[in-house]
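Figure 6 in text form: structure in, sequence out.
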């Protein structure tokens, strides 16, 4: 096996000493040629409704305080959502539902997220993705997921002193985050916990520190919400439970 390129996430991520430093490196990543080509092509072609906007067209860093107690893990940025606005779960229906729920629970200062720098702040919550670039058809390959993994592993390593609960939004996030949490210092139960809406697992810390509570939630995508498979009340209830497990005080 060839050693990783000097600009690969596996080389760069472990060198960072803060989430701010990590986020700065993430936005310049070009490790996956297919994803680089797709995110940049999407920014040139654009969706008709956004023809007058300049797309971000780069990888998306996590959003929220670096000392968060609750972390939400998604899949990857949307081509005309985060890839356009420059913030995770921003500018698309999935984000509309998610941030409205966080606001109802007192975990965000406003119910909508429209653009990076719009004044939105999260309280005790950080949101991140295992894949940082928008993939074609919202389907990253396993190789792209694995190439990107060092970014989110390092992110969790930095948050380890404070994070107490994680919500995986969808089956992809659930499967992707289990090896991440193992690499960041928690023990994943055997057999591995199975994803489902409302699924819950407790991961002991490898060093005997505080345990981590992992929750499963159907992804907040239109595919689930427009069909009624996932409702705002279901999201509110699950995030309330996760926030409580994290030691926050949701409304």
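Output sequence:
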């Amino acid at each position: 096996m060839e050693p990783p390129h000097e600009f690969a996430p596996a080389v760069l991520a472990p060198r960072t000493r803060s989430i701010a430093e990590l986020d700065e490196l993430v936005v310049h990543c070009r490790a996956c040629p297919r994803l680089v080509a797709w995110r940049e092509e999407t920014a040139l072609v654009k969706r008709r409704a956004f023809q007058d906007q300049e797309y971000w067209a780069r990888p998306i860093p996590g959003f929220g305080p670096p000392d968060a107690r609750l972390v939400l893990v998604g899949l990857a940025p949307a081509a005309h959502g985060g890839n356009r606005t420059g913030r995770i779960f921003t500018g698309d229906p999935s984000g509309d539902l998610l941030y409205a729920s966080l606001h109802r629970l007192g975990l965000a200062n406003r119910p909508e997220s429209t653009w990076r720098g719009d004044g939105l702040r999260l309280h005790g919550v950080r949101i991140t993705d295992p894949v940082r670039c928008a993939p074609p058809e919202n389907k990253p390959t396993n190789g792209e997921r694995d190439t990107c993994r060092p970014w989110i592993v390092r992110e969790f390593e930095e948050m380890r002193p404070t994070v107490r609960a994680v919500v995986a939004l969808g089956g992809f996030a659930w499967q992707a985050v289990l090896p991440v949490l193992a690499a960041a210092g928690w023990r994943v139960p055997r057999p591995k916990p199975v994803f489902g809406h409302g699924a819950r697992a407790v991961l002991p810390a490898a060093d005997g520190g505080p345990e981590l509570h992992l929750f499963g939630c159907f992804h907040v995508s239109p595919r689930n919400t427009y069909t009624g498979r996932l409702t705002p009340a279901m999201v509110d209830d699950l995030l309330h439970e996760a926030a409580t497990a994290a030691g926050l005080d949701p409304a």
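Caption detail: The longest strand covers residues 212-217.
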